[in-house]
């Protein structure tokens, strides 16, 4: 099966952006400042990798050529949560960054107070969106549970952020960096795939895989490997690319004395580890045959990208 990864990314991003535009309050809706700030950060750019992974997982599990109806809403909720995390990550109290996705960060444009509230608002909007997904009540509850866990404090995004802060100015170890990456970045990638699997297995399509539990397990493990590989490459790019190519401040990890994979293993070993992790991740997609080709192509892109 011939796969055009650029077309997959383009279509997935367009689907997601249309859903985001529909789901988010307009800039003219009172109170306007918060809605302008939310939209500033959401539509500042970005490759929409997490939403694309979510959509492709749902499509693969459902066994359809097109994503299941409404999958773009789930993808949009994932992107809202991702953007909320970026807004807060860039705040002066955390990473204190002024550039994100090639544009001024939310607090630079709107002030710190509105930026904090914009992140909060995107999180609540995401859960409102999840609660109205066109799936069975059981499937919706399971998706919400998975997402809440992945963004929480125990092996989740917020917990990973705390570990990252606490690790600054300490000698990084392999165990430390692995724990940070799997939680801070990997958890949201992992749940994008797992939630997509739940959504796809609940599609009611005869071409889908009947064992939803097995689908979620496979996609979760696939996501663990792919998510770690993604962050390892992110660490490498922070050391090897400039701010113009990255769309964010280059060299930030080194300047902040962050615990990164290259800091422990070096750049060449880090590249080898990222490629090995993707190869290992592919083994979890073997039961899907050619249906997994698109998802594999996106995962391969995670480690071959230059920004």
Automatic annotation (TrEMBL):
One of its GO terms (biological process) is terpenoid biosynthetic process. Belongs to the FPP/GGPP synthase family. It comes from Acidisarcina polymorpha. GO terms for molecular function: metal ion binding; prenyltransferase activity. Keywords: Isoprene biosynthesis, Magnesium, Metal-binding, Transferase. Its cofactor is Mg(2+). The keyword Amino-acid biosynthesis does not apply. This is Octaprenyl diphosphate synthase. It comes from the Bacteria. NCBIfam families: FPPsyn. GO terms for cellular component: cytoplasm.
